[in-house]
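re: that chain from earlier
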Amino acid sequence: MVAIIDYDAGNIMSVYKAVDHFGYDVVLTRDRDEILSADKVILPGVGAFKDAMDKLIEYNLVDVIKEVVSKGTPFLGICLGLQLLFESSDESPNVDGLCLLKGQIKRIPDKEGLKIPHMGWNSLTIKPDSPLFKGIPNDSYVYFVHSYYLDARDKSIVAATTNYSVDIDASVHSGNIYACQFHPEKSGTVGLNILKNFLELEG
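^ sequence. v structure.
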C-alpha cells in the first residue's frame, strides 16, 4: 500500500492519480497507523514553507514522518515535500523544517530574461546509478514550478541537478529518503517512469 500524506497542501490529487494509474493500492491520509503500515510513503505539495510546517505540526505528522524514515520505509518528497525535508527556507525565516537532511532552501536569484517563479521544463544532469533515475536518459526534461531551490550541504546525496539562474539540486537520495524538486506526475513519460522506479523500490 502507498500512503500519500494529506496535510492540506496543493497538488496532492495529481500525485494520487499518478500512483493509482500504476494500479497500486493508494490512500490519501493523515492517519498515523495507515502511514506507518504503508509500503511506500509520499509527501507531495505546492504551497508556502511555513504554512506547510504549521499543518504538519497541527496534524501531528512531524513525528510520524520521522518514524517512517527511521523504520526504513521508502519515502518520496515532491516539490514542497522536498523542501520540507531540510533545515530551513529563505521563504520563512526562523521556521525549522523537518531537518531530516542537511541543507537550505534558497530563493532563486533574479536574472535578466528569466521569470520567477520558475515554471517550465528543464533538463536534468543525472548522477549515475541513482535508483530513482533507473533507465532515465541524462538530459531528460522534467517540469518545475518553484521560486525556491535546494542547496544541499552534502552534495553526495544529490541525485540530479539542473540550472535556472543558479545550479539547483533537483533531486536527492539518502538512505530510504528520495525527493524531487520537479513534479514527476506532471513530467510526461519520463516523470511517470521516475515515479514507477520509486514505487518498485524494495523496502
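The domain at 2-199 is CATH 3.40.50.880 (Rossmann fold).
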